[in-house]
Design brief:
By secondary structure, the protein is mainly α. It has one domain. The chain contains two helices and two strands. It has a two-stranded antiparallel sheet with strand order 1-2. Strand 1 and strand 2 form a beta hairpin. The radius of gyration is 23 Å and the shape is rod-shaped.
Length: 69
């Protein structure tokens, strides 16, 4: 017997009988994604600017104008 179809059927029965479990699973997924996003964002900012201080080289250039961040 294949275990994956049996596991999916059991999971479906559990979700139908107790739908609040699905809400907890979605809540956990969103928290997991949010934490991973914060970690990746922090690592990206560390790699982008090693000193931790904003520098005057951080700007966006439009034509001959520079907008400093």
């Amino acid at each position: 017997m294949k275990l994956i179809p049996i596991a999916l059927i059991i999971f479906g029965i559990i979700i139908i009988s107790a739908p609040e479990i699905l809400a907890y699973l979605l809540w956990g997924l969103f928290i997991f994604l949010w934490i991973n996003g914060m970690i990746i964002w922090g690592l990206f900012n560390k790699m982008k600017n090693k000193s931790g201080k904003p520098s005057w080289d951080d700007y966006v250039k439009f034509w001959k104008y520079k907008i400093y961040k």
